[in-house]
Design a protein that fits this description.
Helix content is about 10%, strand content about 40%. The chain is mainly β and about 350 residues long. Strand 6 (about 130-140) and strand 7 (about 150-155) form a beta hairpin.
Length: about 350
Amino acid sequence: MRRLLARSTVAALLAAPVVLLAVQGAPGTASLAAKSAAPSAKVVAAARANFVKTMSTHATEVGTGGVSPGGVDHGAGALRGSAGTVTADQSYNWSGYADTESGTKSVSGVTGSWVMPAVTCPTAPYQNSDAFLANWIGVDGFTNGTVEQLGSGAQCYEGVTYYYVWYEMYPANTVEEGTTACINDNVNCPQPGDRLTASIKVTPAGSGENNYTVSLVDLTHQDESFSTTQQCATDVCADANAEWIVERPATEIDNIIQILPAADFDRTYFTAGTVTSGGHPTDIQGFKDGPVYDIAMIDDTASYILACVDQPAPPGTLISATSATSCPTASPTRTGGFEESWDAGF
């Protein structure tokens, strides 16, 4: 759940093998997997500990280390996108949009809404494999080393599906929110179809610190809503990016990037995406202080699209990542909306 690697670091890490921790079946072959008996409290605790550990590994957002078809490399070099224009980009674990400051202004607010998507867990012989999905909004992480974010998540753990709401404030770990019944027993949890709205507000706190108020409202299950204010030093959290992202977590162990499979999800929609910069709120594409990036998620061999904004092919269709026409650059709606579709989980 972390930031963009510098180009040199990406190249070094990708020289080592990118390891998938689990394998999913071919797109279109999976079906909902669930055990006949509810998991015990011990298994629920293990699943949730695994989710928090995976989301808290502080691996970087994994860029491709090169120029995407029709796009740019946003690594260690200067950003080449023009202010207010939408530019294509690719990532191994992110898909969605990022607005990036290129001047002296900073991001002071981000909002977004979405409907929690349903996920389909792997079937035999991979029914006990882990698979993940996270929908979130955030500040930072696209061009620097911190990220302040919150959202929803889904996890396939030993054949059972778990749904979460959570936040993360650099450098602390992911924090799961929700009711005690959900956290302890996996009941009364957020569910697919829940309407969620989230916001991040950055305000000065004095003494070289900023306050980050992160708030999420589950309009369907109000008990899952939360709000908290955390601090970060102004020389640590740069407030340089705003993001609206679908993610499969990536971890970094002994300088080897390990990327978890993306759980098969139905279409997911973001709406009301806004960013505040220099005191002025705009929709995602209305951002004028720097480039707007349309990010496609690709598999670890850079061969296939895993998730694509406003994709041209039916969901579940394997589409090539090597052609600019496979996942063409798309613009969000004037109200800050876009959709994502799953294509493959490997």
